[in-house]
Amino acid sequence: MQEAQVTIVGSSNVDITALMARLPGPGETVLAQSYQLTPGGKGANQALAAQLAGARTEFIGAVGQDSHAQVALGQLAEAGVELGRVARANEATGVAIIQVDAAAENSIAVVPGANAQVTGEVVSALGSLHGIVVLQGEIPASGITAAMDAASDRVVLNLAPVIELPREYLLAANPLVVNEHEAALVLALLDGTEGLSGDSEPVIAQNLLDHGVSSVVITLGAQGCLVAQTHGIQTLPAVKTTAVDTTGAGDAFTGALAARLAHGDDLAQAAEFAGRFAALTVQAHGAQSSYPRNLARL
To answer: Which residues pair with 15 in a beta bridge?
Structure first.
């Protein structure tokens, strides 16, 4: 039996997280109780999640030649993620500045740094990408399209943040993984409109399918997720839990989803597992540090 393989091309950051009672408003200063310096970045987070969820995982990206690089890649290395094709750029390692309040809500600002070097030229030079290929919106669009061209299997496209891609690449996602707001933004790209749809998530998902997207997963936070395929749309409820910090939960979902697809699960089965995996991550602070190391907990 062929080994489950996931290849993730994406971002790697160091997260600087401030914990505070509430998030500041515009122009306001709020004192934080503490801060943490931890590894993050959507691509790296998803790579760790895929590895911990049982797939042999390679992460492809770029970090700087600074002290943050070791922090950014440390937990991936410990977990056994393949890092041989991570580039060392002259730019600083990417940084995410995160604020988390007492209700586990967060706001995030990202400084791409070395992630901007994951371009189409760099990715094309790598050759074929094996297994389930996972991509996000934190690297240049040219890097995303080159990775999709090089993929030997299905592509999981987590278009977060939503950036402009040629129509044929949006339609090649299988699945497209987005939250409610991102789903409306992608639909606007496909419709060629500036305004966002006010329709419900099932209607937006059906519209995405009607455009030709192969399959769609819309994450709904505490309400679970919606799985849309040509043969139907279903909503999977969330696991009930008390959230402490939701940072990285969406990435945990996407990485675990890819791992289960690599193991041969259908999309609904993979999404159900990913929801359970992600629910465990919100019970502790941080992104990668909160990911479950013991699948028996699932």
So the answer is: 38, 96
**DSSP element (H, E) containing 21:** none
Question: Please, are residues 61 and 113 in contact by the beta-carbon 8 Å criterion?
Answer: no
| Whether residue 210 lies in the annotated active site | no
- CATH code of 5-26+34-292, in short, is 3.40.1190.20
Report d(CA 221, CA 280) in Å as an integer: 13
Per-residue model confidence as pLDDT tens digits over 213-254: 999 999 998 899 999 999 999 999 988 877 777 778 999 999
Query: Which contiguous run of DSSP H or E holds residue 11?
Result: none
The residue annotated as part of the active site, out of 199, 251, 265, 266, is 251
The model's pLDDT over 112-150, given as tens digits with 9 standing for 90+, comes to 999 999 999 999 999 999 999 999 999 999 999 999 999
End-to-end CA, the chain:
24
pTM: 0.91
Q: Which tokens hold the place of 258? A: 């890819």
DSSP, res 289? G
Phi, psi of 135 (to 5 degrees): -135, 155
